[in-house]
Amino acid sequence: MTAHETYTFILCLIVMVAFTATFSYLIASNLKMHLKMIELGQLDEDIKKSRTQPQKPKVEFVCRLLSWVLMIAMIVVFAVSMCMYLQPDCGFKNLPALKVVKSTSMQKAHEKNTYLAQNGIDDHLKMFDLILIRPMPAEDRLELYDVVVYQKDDTQIIHRIIGIEEPNAQHPDERQFLLKGDANLWEDEFPVLYSQMQGIYEGERVPFAGSFVMFMQSPAGWLCILLVVFAVFVTPAIEKKILAEHEKRLAVLFPEPDTQKQHTDKA
């Protein structure tokens, strides 16, 4: 990550910790106040109504199950997103890795890039596609029109090989590759060396799924995770605590007859 990205990540993390602490304090305070109202009898009417309402265990079970499924799915996406954010080149060298397309340079074919239509190439990449990047093959196995990821300064670029220059007097020790985005009129500013390439794209992608990954990398995504975890774990605990207080209050409002005392009085 760049220095700016590291600063942004740490700042967002601090804000989310502060938000979590504040949110937890407010929930605890509200719960304490609610329990006190039950104890003082201020919610007796609502408690009496709840006593006559039929319970729906099946509906509750389905809601709980859906909450767990949603939470697990979001945690998986969140974990993948953070791995991609903290280590953007993770897996490129030895294992396949996921990458989000963040530009429109490969979204369509520029009308002057006739080599695409001539070779039947239409594997364009739209912005926010989630693609699978595989490890680089041997240099001599790279071919024209392969799509590769290469590093330029702090930026990873996904473009297509449109030219290969064999070693010559200007660069006697290595091949140079000319790359270009399908939607671009001009090729990339400088030739790319094999050592700069980090992975190759072989057509495996999920359209627009990258938008969810990028959302989960944002503070809003972190907040979503926090709310879902709260709904799955904290809400049932709060409901259980309130229900226990309801039962205590119902015992006061509707005391059970003392059967032993009734038998004694009759005798």
Summarize this structure as a short list of keywords or feature phrases.
267 residues; alpha+beta; 2 domains; six-stranded antiparallel sheet; 7 helices; 6 strands; 49% helix
Describe the protein.
The protein is an alpha+beta fold and 267 residues long. The protein folds into 2 domains: 3-86 and 218-254, no CATH class; 97-208. The protein is 49% helix and 15% strand. The chain contains 7 helices and 6 strands; from the N terminus they run αααβαβββββααα. The chain has a 6-stranded antiparallel sheet, with helices on one face. A hairpin with a 2-residue loop joins strand 3 (147-152) and strand 4 (155-165). Helix 1 (3-39) runs parallel beside helix 6 (219-253) and helix 3 (57-86) crosses helix 5. The mean pLDDT is 83.
